[in-house]
């Protein structure tokens, strides 16, 4: 039997003190983070310097600065500490608590997902969903996420993508606005206030082109995102362009109306994504089954999926 070589590692407590001091460029801030005295941090750094036989910091009047050797050491151990932290969080989250961390777009979260989460919690009371919203692609390396909802064509080389729904744009407004501005022809929109999303500036032009409109949208009110544009429509400010899935509940309730039934498929879809090579957890698979049945509205399919998957044992 071949003996496994013993790892040659520097003392870990001095390494931790050095990493904190290098990251903050301050012994004082490192001491606060580690809940020890500045003298203790300084002593631990000196132990590491003695062990390595090099100087890691240059002391200056207003703080510390890494030497060349210190910078090389910090570059390596920073990656190592990040890997250790990420691995520890994954094990801790899945081994002790059933937490499901999901990132989504603001509009998807506010207008579609959040109003339905009570149903998920009712069906899976032992899974705690931690929902965050961002317009930026999810950072799975440092973001401590299980999955992210993302829009596009699904061709992301590093991600496994499960298609949820196609994007279909329709104009919407409040019943009061429609009563004051009865619309029968698409070109009447030229005189209306069009509510737009700065995050999706091409939605109105795309819909108008697909509806054979003869004008370019100029009378606009721009909001940060589509969710705010829909809120503006609810407040009688004008006509918003929205994804049909996001406003279907309001259309069914009559709080919004669609002046034109014509919908524009953008060629994009929404996907539930996670890193390739990462095995999805049981809570994530349950979430995927649930969100698909919420989109299709097939309760029978939902019951079948739950019987097939079964709610995982948390003991």
Protein model, in words:
The protein has 315 residues and is an alpha/beta fold. The chain folds into three domains: 12-93, Arc Repressor Mutant, subunit A; 99-165 and 269-296, Periplasmic binding protein-like II (D-Maltodextrin-Binding Protein, domain 2, 3-Layer(aba) Sandwich); 167-266, Periplasmic binding protein-like II (D-Maltodextrin-Binding Protein, domain 2, 3-Layer(aba) Sandwich), CATH 3.40.190.10. It has twelve helices and ten strands. The protein has helices at residues 12-24, 27-34, 38-52, 68-96, 106-113, 117-123, 175-180, 203-210, 226-234, 244-253, 282-296, 299-309, and strands at residues 57-60, 63-66, 99-104, 128-133, 147-152, 159-172, 194-197, 220-223, 239-243, 264-275. It is elongated and about 80 Å long. The model is unreliable at 299-315 (pLDDT under 50).
């Amino acid at each position: 039997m071949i003996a496994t070589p013993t790892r040659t590692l520097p003392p870990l407590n001095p390494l931790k003190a050095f990493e904190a001091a290098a990251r903050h460029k301050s012994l004082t801030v490192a001491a606060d983070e580690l809940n020890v005295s500045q003298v203790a941090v300084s002593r631990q750094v000196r132990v590491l310097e003695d062990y390595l036989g090099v100087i890691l910091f240059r002391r200056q009047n207003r703080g510390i600065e890494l030497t060349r050797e210190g910078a090389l050491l910090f570059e390596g151990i920073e990656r190592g500490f990040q890997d250790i932290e990420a691995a520890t969080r994954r094990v801790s989250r899945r081994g002790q608590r059933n937490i499901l961390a999901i990132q989504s777009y603001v509009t998807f979260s506010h207008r579609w997902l959040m109003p339905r989460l009570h149903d998920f919690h009712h069906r899976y009371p032992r899974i705690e969903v931690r929902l965050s919203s961002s317009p930026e692609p999810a950072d799975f390396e440092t973001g401590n996420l299980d999955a992210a909802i993302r829009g596009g064509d699904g061709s992301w080389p590093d991600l496994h993508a499960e298609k949820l729904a196609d994007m279909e744009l329709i104009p919407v407004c409040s019943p009061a606005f429609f009563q004051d501005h009865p619309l029968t022809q698409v070109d009447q929109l030229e005189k209306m206030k069009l509510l737009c999303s700065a995050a999706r500036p091409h939605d109105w032009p795309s819909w108008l082109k697909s509806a054979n409109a003869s004008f370019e949208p100029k009378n606009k009110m721009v909001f940060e995102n589509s969710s705010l544009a829909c809120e503006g429509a609810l407040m009688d400010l004008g006509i918003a362009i929205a994804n049909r899935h996001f406003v279907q509940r309001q259309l069914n309730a009559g709080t919004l109306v669609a002046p034109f039934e014509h919908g524009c498929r953008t060629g994009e879809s929404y996907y539930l994504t996670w890193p390739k090579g990462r095995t999805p957890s049981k809570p994530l698979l349950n979430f995927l089954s649930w969100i698909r049945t919420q989109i299709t509205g097939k309760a029978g399919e939902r019951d079948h999926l739950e019987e097939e998957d079964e709610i995982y044992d948390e003991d």
